[in-house]
Amino acid sequence: METSTGSLLTTAALRAGDRAAELVEPATVLLADHLACLLARAVGEGRPAGGVRATPWEQDGTLGLVASWAIRAHALDMDDINWSTLTHPGSIVWPVVLALGAESSAPAETLLRAAAAGYEMVTAVASVIAPVHGPRLHATATSGGAGAAVAAAVLLDLGPEHVTAAVSHALSMSGGAGQATLERSGTTAFHRAVAATTGVLAARAAQRGLTASLSSLDGPRGLLAMWGGSGPVELPDSPGGLATTSIRPYPVSGFLQTVVAVVVAARAAATGRVRSITVRAASVVLDLTRDSGDPRWSLVDVVAAAWDSADPYAAADGPAYSRAALRGLISAEPDGRSVWAAGVEVVTENERIVRESSDPPGLHPTVAQVQRKWEHLGAGDPADPCGWAGDLLTGRAAVTEMVRDGRW
After folding, report:
1. Is the pLDDT of residue 13 over 70?
2. Where in the chain is CATH 3.30.1330.120?
3. Which of 113, 269, 319, 387 is 20 to 30 A removed from 130 (C-alpha atoms)?
4. Where in the chain is the domain with CATH 1.10.4100.10?
């Protein structure tokens, strides 16, 4: 029997999980970033009526907690991003790893293995299907269920055949209209919740022996055929999963992270009064960030705030009366660079300054970046978020105790 694309991707994801011991450092930073998004001061769903102080786990069980965390992780649109696939694995994978890990009292090495396999699966599936469905569908939603299924299956200690079944179940339910990303609505967070909980349900179904379609991805009535794909599927090189996923350190759109970085760098070199600021970025980035009512998505507002404050973490402060003249000096030109790259040319009364970057600022996330983001978001204790995340992934702290913490 011919091996399906889904089973090949599942095998690759499990192999990534087996190499998870090599990924403790990036996993720690990405987990700390996820926890910052969950605990951000501006994020909250309120407490149940009547003064009952129940955690989501106590109130709705594991699935309820997974859904709650997936939504909250994206509430400020600052969850992590894999630039090569334009997906956001962390807001789907980590809720599954933490909630199901707590339910099963999983050891640290299993948490890490599940996370590595989940990240790999999200990005691998997206690299195959996103080019077929394009912007009509939301890539994080279409690939996220498979990643959640692999992570859940690892935590449930399923064998390879059952893991493949879990993935096939999840893939058969892939979806998520791209209109949500176009409108930047809260539905994009709901997509994450559906993908994450679908993955858990798929793994539980496989655990109970429910047989799965053999070719949910590449069969004649599979996803690729449904979305207009044709011909044999060529598996691309691994997009790298966990090791190549970035954080979004600054409180602006992911497409403006590098713009902020180059503008602040140019500001630091300027000695005279500014006469013009010209940003160069991919045309799709300029289209998405033009005339936005949200200051985090408005290129002109973000550039003006970053230049005025010289602080990348103040780049979403929005338009201010004092910046009206500065805004009039800002223009943008499209070019052929990637969506995560940017350049800026600044002319002042004394000099011409050019700054370029092809790497987004969170591409190789650091402890210092997460620490600053944690503080900016007002996430509170602990003072050392990466140390806390590291304790969870190395066994010095129990995930069950963390999940039962009333802050969640």
Report:
1. yes
2. 254-357
3. 113
4. 5-249+365-403
Determine the topology of domain 254-357 in CATH.
Answer: 60s Ribosomal Protein L30; Chain: A; (3.30.1330)
Q: What is the pLDDT of residue 50?
A: 40
H-helix segments, 74-177: 90-103, 108-133, 139-155, 160-172
pLDDT at residue number 52:
42
Angle in degrees, CA 373, 377, 382, rounded to 5: 80
pLDDT for the residue 6: 84
Q: In whole angstroms, how far apart are CA 41 and each of 72, 99, 378?
A: 11, 22, 5
Token digits of residue 186? 């809260």
**Topology of the domain covering 5-249+365-403:** 2-methylcitrate dehydratase PrpD (1.10.4100)
Residue 94 — very low, low, confident or very high, per pLDDT cuts 50/70/90? very high
pTM tops 0.90, yes or no: yes
∠ CA(106), CA(112), CA(118), 5° rounding?
Answer: 105
Q: What backbone phi and psi angles, to 5 degrees, belong to 387? A: -65, -40
Q: Is the dihedral of CA 363, 368, 374, 377 positive or negative?
A: negative
* 1 has a pLDDT exceeding 60: no
